[in-house]
Amino acid sequence: MEPSIATSIGQIHLDKPVMLASGILGISLDVFNRLYASGAGAVVTKSLSTAAWEGYPNPTIFSVKGGGWINAVGLSNPGASYFAKMIEPNQDVPIIVSLVGSIPEDFEMMIKEFKNCKVKAYELNMSCPHVARVGLEVGDDPGLVKEIVSTVKKATDVPVIAKVGLGTSNYLNTVGTAVDSGIDAITAINTVRAMAIDVETKRPILSNKFGGLSGTPIKPIALRCVYEISSKYDIPIIGCGGISSWEDAVEFFLAGASGVQLGSAIGDNWVGVFDDINKGILDYMKRNNYSTIKEMVGLAKKS
Amino acid sequence: MQRNLNHPTIVTIEKVIDETPTVRTLVFSDDVMPTVLPGQFAMVWIPGVNELPMSVMISKESGKAAFTVRKHGPSSTGLFNVPVGGQIGIRGPYGNSFDVKEGKLLLVGGGTGLVPMMRLLTFVKPTDDVTVLMGAKSKDEVFFEDLSNELLKNNPHKVIVSTDDGSYGEKGFVTDMVEKLVNETKFDAVYVCGPEIMMYKTVQSAHSRNIFVQASLERMMKCGVGICGSCCVGEDLACRDGTVFDGDHLSTNKEFGHLHRNKAGILEKY
Ligand SMILES: Cc1cc2nc3c(=O)[nH]c(=O)nc-3n(C[C@H](O)[C@H](O)[C@H](O)COP(=O)(O)OP(=O)(O)OC[C@H]3O[C@@H](n4cnc5c(N)ncnc54)[C@H](O)[C@@H]3O)c2cc1C
Ligand SMILES: Cc1cc2nc3c(=O)[nH]c(=O)nc-3n(C[C@H](O)[C@H](O)[C@H](O)COP(=O)(O)O)c2cc1C
Ligand code: FES
């Protein structure tokens, strides 16, 4: 029998395991449709806030010489209510709505906006490394993580994912708190706080000075995090960080992820990257006699 | 090590040419930008100010390229004010380019939308019969007229200027002139860059007569490489799928000519 690349991340069932990560191209339903047709298993929206945000001035993105990107887009987004109206007509594309906020009420309010939308899951951004009072600053505060997760879980029946990253406290404690508060899955990781300085003009390049490093340089770090989380907690995991090939995706499965997300690889390989990876995973499964992704998940820990 | 085209390269402004009271051309030396295809753009970093998408302008001297900028808001004014000896960062080139056709060509440019048209002129063959139509608000905002004539000196050609107030050349909107020209002449290709309403009407005029037409779209650009999503037009990403699109494709795009996104990604009417 032909193996299947369909996967389940807890209660989230997807036909294909590679998703679009938050913040990448995630601004219009037309683009979501295109990415879904290109082989994305699901698309994650830009992180939405209660009000529209313009984000930082340019330069907001910087290409690192050895590979990878540093971005400080500053969570620019049209706001949750605008976005909800835009995606209301959607029936086909599995959309994961990413939310960012400072207090539990922000999240509660935004979830109400999506009452008429088909939402596959919510992803709580507890890890953006370059915007004050949201993202990592939330993720680094266990009390807040607990309150937010519990509030969101009460506000919706849709599965809720927490997206974590590397902040000032041990991210494993954030994961632990989220798990104890009833989270359904974890996405690991967000970008890693970084910067770039131009030697000619002798100044930081990004307008915000600091940004988040993504792409191939962070893959080994993200992989380590997925391995650590899956070793310590019994929670479905989505791997994210530097994935650009089927080998990368399979590595994350072997480390304990049931699905993966990618963003930066689109800058290098454009939207064909989804189908390329899906095909590669399928070939690998055939060669190794796996019939489901599940058979691969966490295998590297058994050896 | 080979140059990473996504990484800003610092160049020094060597010459500043005042085209009109509000438009300037800044010339610099570089080994990549002088050879880019017509329609391609660069992301231009003005340290301490902003980073803006700019079409790559030609320079008469070899090994040099330029940007032609109109002073508008704070960011473009920042670039406009970079003096000789000042440094800017450039990355790219980005985007696709115009398909260079042969025969009877019509190039339509409004304001700084003329920049990609000037580069396109350096790609035409001596046998091509070329009409350049340029639109400006008034007489003192007309530029590149002499340059167009000079670039086309070996071609059968016409350079037509139209001003909204009639203070120079033909009076009226460029799009009315386009309608007239495509009625009179069977062009093999029409190319347009300028304000979107102007491009929309030009594309309609040509497309409805089955004339091959291409337009170069402008959208809010942050990354320039197809990651951030800010430049989407329907399902297309202007920076990566464009900026040049065919009339055939544009006539199916529901945002072209009507809507664009602001910095937060909210659709606004033109
Ligand atoms: C592919 C491309 C090529 C271009 N080529 C030229 C050129 O050759 N010469 C020229 O003068 N201008 C060109 N522009 C326009 C230029 O990038 C700026 O949009 C324009 O100069 C306005 O700057 P500003 O100082 O008014 O911006 P601001 O005052 O910061 O903003 C005013 C408005 O300008 C526009 N704008 C600002 N930042 C951007 C951005 N990053 N991307 C797109 N639009 C923006 C928005 O509509 C904004 O609302 C080009 C734009 C694109 C997309
Ligand atoms: C331009 C850009 C914008 C991003 N915006 C968001 C965002 O809004 N919310 C979020 O949770 N992560 C955001 N991220 C992080 C990505 O979702 C992802 O976690 C990170 O880029 C690592 O994956 P990659 O290496 O495949 O890009 C952004 C990343 C980039 C490059
Ligand atoms: S400018 Fe970022 S996707 Fe086009």
UniProtKB/TrEMBL annotation, chain A:
<dbReference type="InterPro" id="IPR013785">
    <property type="entry name" value="Aldolase_TIM"/>
</dbReference>
<dbReference type="InterPro" id="IPR001295">
    <property type="entry name" value="Dihydroorotate_DH_CS"/>
</dbReference>
<dbReference type="InterPro" id="IPR012135">
    <property type="entry name" value="Dihydroorotate_DH_1_2"/>
</dbReference>
<dbReference type="GO" id="GO:0005737">
    <property type="term" value="C:cytoplasm"/>
</dbReference>
<feature type="binding site">
    <location>
        <begin position="46"/>
        <end position="47"/>
    </location>
    <ligand>
        <name>FMN</name>
    </ligand>
</feature>
<feature type="binding site">
    <location>
        <begin position="71"/>
        <end position="75"/>
    </location>
    <ligand>
        <name>substrate</name>
    </ligand>
</feature>
<feature type="binding site">
    <location>
        <position position="22"/>
    </location>
    <ligand>
        <name>FMN</name>
    </ligand>
</feature>
<dbReference type="GO" id="GO:0044205">
    <property type="term" value="P:'de novo' UMP biosynthetic process"/>
</dbReference>
<dbReference type="GO" id="GO:0006207">
    <property type="term" value="P:'de novo' pyrimidine nucleobase biosynthetic process"/>
</dbReference>
<comment type="pathway">
    <text>Pyrimidine metabolism; UMP biosynthesis via de novo pathway.</text>
</comment>
<keyword id="KW-0560">Oxidoreductase</keyword>
<dbReference type="InterPro" id="IPR024920">
    <property type="entry name" value="Dihydroorotate_DH_1"/>
</dbReference>
<dbReference type="InterPro" id="IPR050074">
    <property type="entry name" value="DHO_dehydrogenase"/>
</dbReference>
<comment type="similarity">
    <text>Belongs to the dihydroorotate dehydrogenase family. Type 1 subfamily.</text>
</comment>
<protein>
    <recommendedName>
        <fullName>Dihydroorotate dehydrogenase</fullName>
        <ecNumber>1.3.-.-</ecNumber>
    </recommendedName>
</protein>
<feature type="binding site">
    <location>
        <begin position="263"/>
        <end position="264"/>
    </location>
    <ligand>
        <name>FMN</name>
    </ligand>
</feature>
<feature type="binding site">
    <location>
        <begin position="241"/>
        <end position="242"/>
    </location>
    <ligand>
        <name>FMN</name>
    </ligand>
</feature>
<feature type="binding site">
    <location>
        <begin position="190"/>
        <end position="191"/>
    </location>
    <ligand>
        <name>substrate</name>
    </ligand>
</feature>
<dbReference type="GO" id="GO:0004152">
    <property type="term" value="F:dihydroorotate dehydrogenase activity"/>
</dbReference>
<feature type="active site" description="Nucleophile">
    <location>
        <position position="128"/>
    </location>
</feature>
<feature type="binding site">
    <location>
        <position position="125"/>
    </location>
    <ligand>
        <name>substrate</name>
    </ligand>
</feature>
<feature type="binding site">
    <location>
        <position position="163"/>
    </location>
    <ligand>
        <name>FMN</name>
    </ligand>
</feature>
TrEMBL record, chain B:
<dbReference type="Pfam" id="PF10418">
    <property type="entry name" value="DHODB_Fe-S_bind"/>
</dbReference>
<dbReference type="InterPro" id="IPR017927">
    <property type="entry name" value="FAD-bd_FR_type"/>
</dbReference>
<dbReference type="InterPro" id="IPR050353">
    <property type="entry name" value="PyrK_electron_transfer"/>
</dbReference>
<dbReference type="GO" id="GO:0016491">
    <property type="term" value="F:oxidoreductase activity"/>
</dbReference>
<dbReference type="InterPro" id="IPR001433">
    <property type="entry name" value="OxRdtase_FAD/NAD-bd"/>
</dbReference>
<dbReference type="InterPro" id="IPR017938">
    <property type="entry name" value="Riboflavin_synthase-like_b-brl"/>
</dbReference>
<feature type="binding site">
    <location>
        <position position="231"/>
    </location>
    <ligand>
        <name>[2Fe-2S] cluster</name>
    </ligand>
</feature>
<feature type="binding site">
    <location>
        <position position="228"/>
    </location>
    <ligand>
        <name>[2Fe-2S] cluster</name>
    </ligand>
</feature>
<feature type="binding site">
    <location>
        <position position="223"/>
    </location>
    <ligand>
        <name>[2Fe-2S] cluster</name>
    </ligand>
</feature>
<dbReference type="InterPro" id="IPR019480">
    <property type="entry name" value="Dihydroorotate_DH_Fe-S-bd"/>
</dbReference>
<feature type="domain" description="FAD-binding FR-type">
    <location>
        <begin position="6"/>
        <end position="100"/>
    </location>
</feature>
<dbReference type="GO" id="GO:0050660">
    <property type="term" value="F:flavin adenine dinucleotide binding"/>
</dbReference>
<protein>
    <submittedName>
        <fullName>Dihydroorotate dehydrogenase electron transfer subunit</fullName>
    </submittedName>
</protein>
<keyword id="KW-0411">Iron-sulfur</keyword>
<keyword id="KW-0001">2Fe-2S</keyword>
<dbReference type="GO" id="GO:0051537">
    <property type="term" value="F:2 iron, 2 sulfur cluster binding"/>
</dbReference>
<dbReference type="GO" id="GO:0006221">
    <property type="term" value="P:pyrimidine nucleotide biosynthetic process"/>
</dbReference>
<feature type="binding site">
    <location>
        <position position="239"/>
    </location>
    <ligand>
        <name>[2Fe-2S] cluster</name>
    </ligand>
</feature>
<dbReference type="Pfam" id="PF00175">
    <property type="entry name" value="NAD_binding_1"/>
</dbReference>
<keyword id="KW-0408">Iron</keyword>
<dbReference type="InterPro" id="IPR012165">
    <property type="entry name" value="Cyt_c3_hydrogenase_gsu"/>
</dbReference>
<keyword id="KW-0479">Metal-binding</keyword>
